[in-house]
Amino acid sequence: MDRKLRRRFPTIEACRQGARGRLPTFLFDYLEGGCDGETALARNRRAFERILVSTRVGRSAYWPDKSTELFGRTWSLPFGISPCGYVDILDPGTDLAAAAAAEKAGAPFIASLVTIATMEEIAEIAPKSTWLQVSRVSHGDVDQDLIKRAAAAGISTIVVTIDLPGSSKRVRDVKNGFDLPLRISPGFVLDVMTSPGWALSMLRRLNPKPGNFVKYMPKGTSSTSALMEVERLAHLETVWDDVKRFRDTWTGKLVVKGIIDPADAVLARDYGADGIIVSGHGGRQFDAVLPSIDCLPRVVDAVGAEVPVMLDSGVRSGLDILRALICGARMVFSGRSFYFAAGAIGRRGPAHAFDLLSEELDIVMRQAGFKSTLDVLDCNPEERLVRSTI
Fold this sequence. Notes:
By secondary structure, the protein is α/β, with parallel strands linked by helices. Helices cover about 45% and strands about 10% of the residues. The chain contains 19 helices and 12 strands. The protein has helices spanning about 5-10, 10-20, 25-30, 40-50, 95-105, 120-125, 140-150, 170-175, 185-195, 195-200, 225-235, 240-250, 260-270, 290-305, 320-325, 335-345, 350-370, 375, 380-385; strands at about 50-55, 70, 75, 80, 110, 130-135, 155-160, 255-260, 275-280, 310, 330-335, 385. The strands form 3 sheets. It has an 8-stranded parallel β-sheet with strand order 4-11-10-9-8-7-6-5. A two-stranded antiparallel ribbon has the order 1-12. A two-stranded antiparallel sheet has the order 2-3. Strand 2 and strand 3 form a beta hairpin. Helix 5 packs parallel to helix 6, helix 5 (about 95-105) packs parallel to helix 17 (about 350-370) and helix 16 (about 335-345) packs across helix 17 (about 350-370). The longest helix is centred in the last third of the chain and has 20 residues, at about 350-370. The two termini are about 35 Å apart.
């Protein structure tokens, strides 16, 4: 770990504060914000903070083994990076830097469909770590072609995002007038002028286009037109029939992301999912969504050992990762943790976030008396967890 970075940004919260200072307001708000009153964001954090862990002492757990088994491979870490679109706007090259950081750390990286780099470029940099987020694309057979390209690129796992029935109202974005493509206004110019470091970095990447979709656009399409074309091509509503279509075509591992209700977890299993990610979309879609960590145990109980269950939403520390593992998550994902770091530091940010979270997970496993991730997963949550009312 870079000592200077560790002193300056010792936690994910410090990275969040750093991102607030480096990024224009409209961009920080896009990264941090949720929908409507943002109560789902606060509930996710409170739900994690209520979970207390009963410690066991007198055990030799000084160097805990953080590796875990999932989908026939041993991962060095039990956590990875959630998909987030257009993160290159934080710093040019962030897509590829995040993928490279995950590959080096031995952790999964879920690439968003709307990255500036193509899936082929990402998979070349992170051949062992890259998973691909997919959703329904209403234009022709584009979504089927996308997963054929994923197979050809050697990507092992697709992640079907099913919790996007339509656009939500993100009040910060409305107030800031933020939309893609960016609209230049006096307020926008003033906001950018207060963030000169970010503005200079963006000069390295002029006129970016969503790489995965360029193939399906007319030659010579401008950056602005390309972003509008993606909005036309994409269809937010992915339903169970779409999951079936993907399952019928895709021969690799298929994960369904966005499950909250145990009944939907059973449906995901019945439609052929190899894995499930319990997620409330980071509080960005529905402000009355239940906290993912509260839903996790019920989803695990619903599908049993047949389908590995993972978690996303609200994770900000190694302690949160440990809490999720005790609750039954086989892998834990975070998006904002890694992209707050990218917002604060630039392309080195995702690697720094891996260092921070890995260090913290070491410490809390040691303090709680867990020798390995397997030790955590095998424990009885009822004996190790207390839900505080404070």
